[in-house]
Amino acid sequence: MAKQALIVVDIQNDYFPNGKWPLVGVEAAADQAARVIAKFRAAGDLVVHIRHEFTSADAPFFAPGSEGAQLHPKVLNRSDEPVVLKHFINSFRETELEAILDQHGIDELVVVGNMSHMCVHGITRAAVDMGYTVTVIHDACATLDLEFNGVKVPAAQVHAAFMAALAFAYAGMSSTDDFLAP
Q1: For residue 115, cis peptide bond before it (omega within 30 degrees of 0)
Q2: Residue ranges of domains in the chain
Q3: DSSP character for 78?
Q4: Would you state the pLDDT for residue 2?
Q5: Rounded CA gap, 68 and 21, in Å?
Q6: What values do phi and psi take at 42, rounded to 5?
Q7: Measured distance CA(138)–CA(125) in Å, rounded
Q8: Second label for 177, Cα 20 to 30 Å away, from 82, 113, 136, 142?
Q9: Which residues partner with 112 through β-bridges?
Q10: What GO MF terms are annotated (predicted)?
Q11: For the domain 4-180, what is the CATH superfamily, name and number?
């Protein structure tokens, strides 16, 4: 039988309305993530929190040691839940994440968090490349409006495009309600 873990990616203060890099829909996504966390905790399954800090104090957000780089109160880790500090988009790069998962015999990951187009996308692709089966809870993830070559792309379209790309060849997709259904 497969053994799963929940990976809570970068649900940190700077992504919320009073932070340095607010995301569209982040409050609702964090509420959904909190529901998924509660399910994993109730089942006694592993919950791993990822916390991003840039290495430079002049970073646009997630500056080292800042309040903005701390986990948001909606999803704070319990004392028995590891928090992996990362400095790159890929949560596996130069971190202990893989060792933690190996220590617990994990082969399936459920991913929630921020940003859909960056770190959620990055960990999902890396995890699949490393042999994990991955499910992304799409409504427990958030992103922001982007611009490319003069074209403004609303957050909802950014999110949909990246979820569609992951669903095409990398991950299963689920809503929170469907994932939590008995």
Answers
A1: yes
A2: 4-180
A3: P
A4: 73
A5: 9
A6: -60, -35
A7: 15
A8: 82
A9: 8
A10: hydrolase activity
A11: Isochorismatase-like (3.40.50.850)
Phi then psi for 95, rounded to 5 degrees?
-130, 175
Tokens of 127: 């995890």
Rounded CA separation 173/165 (Å): 11
Encoded tokens for 139: 């409504």
Tokens of 20: 């340095």
Give the C-alpha distances (Å, rounded to integers) separating 114 from 3, 80, 150, 151, 181: 24, 22, 24, 22, 23
Residue corresponding to tokens 């053994």:
3
- Write out the two tokens for 138: 């799409």
Structure tokens at 169: 């060849």
Tens digits of residue pLDDT in 32-53: 999 999 999 999 999 999 999 9
